[in-house]
Amino acid sequence: MASPNQRHLLSALVQNVPGVLAHISGMLASRGYNIDSLAVGETEDPTLSRMTFVVVGDDQVLDQVRKQLEKIVTVVRVLDISANDYVERDLLLVKVTAPAGGVRSEIRELVDIFRGQIVDVGEGEVMIEISGRANKVQAFIERIDRYGIVELVRTGRIAMVRSGSQITSSEPAAEPVQA
Fold first, then answer.
1. CA torsion through residues 25, 28, 32, 36, sign
2. How far from each other are the two terminal CA atoms of the chain, in whole angstroms?
3. Residue 50 pairs with which residues in a beta bridge?
4. 130-172 per-position pLDDT tens digit
5. 59-71 vs 20-30: helix axis angle to the nearest 10?
6. What CATH number has the domain bearing residue 55?
7. Element holding 135 (H helix, E strand)
8. Of 85, 112, 135, which one is at a domain's C-terminal end?
């Protein structure tokens, strides 16, 4: 049995129509399920979007969230990515205080260690991009904090099941709308 604080990574393939995000997030909130992370974007099929959720709870919470998602007409399919072998990524943009000279060199070295890149340079600040697993992104934030974080933005988690892996999925909830 899963611990009550286990993170579950769900991927919902949804019809790409206005209001889907509001409908799904509202439904989850009204039932008391907290979304720890959420990312939404178009797929290879422009009529479909993928919503990747991280929800925290035990297996019963996961089961209830999946059942609730599957009841929504615009939801085509729900996958429990966390039950599979998968690749996940978060993206971070962070602006830090970086006066020219030694401090800026230290920051550049830290960015290189984390395989990130400096994407903008100002007079006294730099903007850094880091992508990777959530724990890598968090570790970078903890190390760069001492330089003075001016602004930080982070995406929700995105993930895909590795090629050749068995996929744990629900049955399709609805057929996609044909344009």
1. negative
2. 43
3. 13, 41
4. 999 999 999 999 999 999 999 999 998 999 999 986 665 444 4
5. 140
6. 3.30.70.260
7. helix 134-144
8. 85
Structure tokens, 137: 């992104």
CA–CA separation, 133 and 138 (whole Å): 9
Closest CA to 80 of 178, 179, 2: 2
Are the C-beta atoms of residues 20 and 28 closer than 8 Å to each other?
no
Report yes or no: 128 and 94 within 8 Å, Cβ to Cβ.
Answer: yes
Of residues 8, 24, 29, the one with CA closest to residue 75 = 24
Q: What is the pLDDT of residue 174?
A: 45
If asked whether residues 79 and 94 sit together in one domain, one would say no
Give yes or no: residues 74 and 116 share one domain. no
Q: Render pLDDT for 118-141 as a digit per residue (tens, 0 to 9).
A: 999 999 999 999 999 999 999 999
Among 85, 115, 143, where does a domain finish?
A: 85
From residue 9, alpha-carbon distances to 22, 30, 173 in Å are 19, 20, 18
| Residue 107 neighbours by CB under 8 Å, 6+ apart | 96, 98, 118, 126, 128, 144, 147
Domain-embedded: residue 163: no
Q: Cβ distance 49 to 41 under 8 Å?
A: yes
Q: Which two tokens stand for residue 128?
A: 């850094």
